[in-house]
What we know:
Layout lengths: L2 H7 E12 L20 E11 L4 E9 H20 L2
Antiparallel strand pairs: 1-2, 2-3
Amino acid sequence: MSVQEFIANKKMLDVEWRFSSFNHNIILVATANSSKENYSDCFLQLKIKTIDKNMVEETTHFELTLAQFNELFTEIEKVKNLMSLIK
């Protein structure tokens, strides 16, 4: 199933997330460019609960690298900005 089909056919019910590293959970997430190298082994774990048109609930797990998370966050910000225009 493509991402477009996933989005079109399901409604999101809940999202859980946490930042982790391969060695331990991250308590502090650095945002300075110079600090990113120190956290190159970080990843984000997502658990998304959805429901489809037939009222079937499903939980999907994802793991994103820090780079993938930054890309996702950029796209979410774009959507947020578009949504604010249509309010």
